[in-house]
Amino acid sequence: MASGNSAIRGSRVGAGPMGEQDRGFHADRVAVSYWDAQGNETVRYFAANLPEEEIPDVIDSPSTGLPAGRDRENPPAVTKLEPYKTHLAYVKERRTEDEAAQLLDDALNQLRARRGQVSKD
Length: 121
Prior knowledge:
There is one protein chain. By secondary structure, the protein is an alpha+beta fold. It has helices spanning about 20-25, 85-95, 95-115; strands spanning about 30-35, 40-45, 60, 65-70. The protein contains three helices and four strands. A hairpin with a 6-residue loop joins strand 3 (about 60) and strand 4.
């Protein structure tokens, strides 16, 4: 049995020399810092040729979920969160009490008619 060492032992298939020439050209970019109300900094990178008006002024901080802005001394305030609404809450926004009562009466009358229990009002 030959005791030669394999040149590829321990390396990945397709692995080659590391370096810029093998990985392609990296576009120029700018780093933009954002701060949240707790003082956490988040850095986002944007293409250097991106117009300033397309870079967002506020992002969501990945560490806290709070809004983060570009002004370190005046981070954006937390906007008032709307509570979760149930399906019933949305229905109540669309219908008045009288409309709801009429719809309920109509639905009950249809159900009673299918079951043969129509009331004689």
